[in-house]
Every structure is written in structure tokens, then in C-alpha cells.
Amino acid sequence: MQLIDIECQHSVTEILGGTIMATAVRISEALAGEAKKFGRIDHRSLAGQIEHWARMGKCVEENPDLPYSLIKEILIGLDELDQGEKTEYRFG
């Protein structure tokens, strides 16, 4: 198995107050090929697709009772709030 290096930028907002850090990681060519294929569907770069998979995997592991579709909708909603596209719902 051959490995390739990619550089991912990941958000460390909670830790470093909104800065972005770049980290080089080594992944297999097979994983890179799959990430490129799936990334084209959602217009993500190779690094962006791997970051997406890592984020989703982390959320799924932290919330094993929630279905993937619900986790995805929650993350989309949070992103919309961050981008100012939606406002938080207030009960009462």
C-alpha cells in the first residue's frame, strides 16, 4: 500500500479562538481516491472531504443512538447559524 501526504486545515475555534491550523497527514492512495470521488459530488477538495468524514465520524461515535441523517441535519443547522443564514429558535 502506497501512502500519499495531504494537508488538512482544521478549525480549532474552541481551543484557539477561531484560528485555522494546517496539519500534514499521510493516507493511503485508496482512501485518497475514494475521498476525491465523493468530494466531487459535494464540491469539496480532497482535504475538505477527509475533514468532513472525520467530523461526521467523530459525531457518530459521540452520539451512537442518533441516525446519520439527524447528525447531518444538526451540523447543517449549526453551520447556517454560524453563517448568519438562520436565527436560533427561542421557545416561549
Distance between the termini: 57 Å
Strand content: 15-25%
**Count, helices:** 4
How many discrete structural domains?
A: 1
Strand line-up across the major sheet: 1-2
User: pLDDT below 50 for ≥5 consecutive residues: which ranges?
Assistant: 9-16
Describe what is shown at a glance.
The chain has 4 helices and 2 strands, in the order E-H-E-H-H-H.
Observed structural traits:
2 strands, 92 residues, alpha+beta, single chain
Could you describe the 3D structure shown?
- The protein has helices spanning 13-16, 29-41, 46-62, 68-82; strands at 3-11, 20-28.
- 53% of the residues lie in helices and 20% in strands.
- It has 92 residues and is of the alpha+beta class.
- Residues 9-16 have low confidence and may be disordered.
- Helix 2 (29-41) crosses helix 3.
- The N and C termini lie far apart (57 Å).
How are the elements arranged and paired?
Layout: E1 3-11, H1 13-16, E2 20-28, H2 29-41, H3 46-62, H4 68-82
Antiparallel strand pairs: 1-2
Helix pairs in contact: 2-3
